[in-house]
Design goal:
Number of helices: 8
Helix content: 25-40%
Radius of gyration: 20 Å
Number of domains: 2
Structural class: alpha+beta
Number of strands: 9
Length: 212
């Protein structure tokens, strides 16, 4: 298989799996050897076993990190600080793309960024949606409310008013109080219910300050 043929097949894909090149009478072992050679030559980025992206100048699509995260682990969605930054709820630039998964926790350092995955129980795997990221790319991302609840759930003492203050939350009008309460109730977690009360109080205080 020629590399130009690979570019023709996957040129419009942000990332691609080995299986996309395995069709017809193509020898799977030969394709894997070629992928390894092209990676060493700098034509491809290997993100994890079996997952690749074209490297510049062959890359036609600039890959959004949330898309990569979804493809790194299928049973996952982007959440925590990454999602909060996306919605403008925290002021910090987040260099790591963090997701939650029902699978084992994991992390990868790749040429396209650092990706980490934290485990949550199946009962807490909800509250995400397919988000349009531009350039015909979409990814599953937690709602603003669930991103906060995931962070609080996974952080010891995350329900305290002190911790929530440390997050330097902003633009709290983005949060839907009813959705926040509903998701905390769905999680059946006293910790998240306490945190929700504190978050609603923070949002009310922000609104009152803005009207002064």
């Amino acid at each position: 298989m020629e590399f130009t043929h690979v570019v023709d097949i996957v040129g419009n894909e942000p990332v691609f799996e080995t299986g996309l090149l395995l069709s017809g009478r193509v020898d799977a072992n030969d394709v894997r050897r070629q992928l390894s050679r092209w990676t060493k030559a700098g034509h491809l980025y290997q993100l994890r076993r079996g997952l690749y992206a074209l490297a510049p100048p062959f890359q036609k699509v600039k890959t959004h990190p949330f898309v990569v995260a979804n493809r790194m682990m299928r049973s996952s969605y982007v959440s925590l600080q990454s999602a909060l930054g996306h919605y403008g709820l925290i002021p910090d630039i987040v260099p790591v793309t963090t997701s939650v998964t029902t699978g084992r926790p994991n992390q990868w350092q790749t040429p396209l960024g650092f990706y980490t995955f934290q485990h949550v129980k199946t009962e807490l795997f909800f509250g995400y949606k397919l988000v349009d990221l531009g350039r015909n790319q979409q990814a599953f991302v937690a709602t603003p409310e669930k991103a906060l609840l995931d962070l609080i759930h996974l952080h010891p003492g995350g329900d305290s008013a002190e911790y929530l203050q440390e997050l330097r939350l902003q633009n709290l009008e983005v949060l839907d109080p009813e959705k926040l309460q509903h998701q905390a109730k769905q999680a059946s977690s006293p910790k998240l219910k306490r945190a929700t009360a504190n978050l609603i109080e923070l949002a009310q205080a922000e609104r009152a300050y803005e009207t002064l």
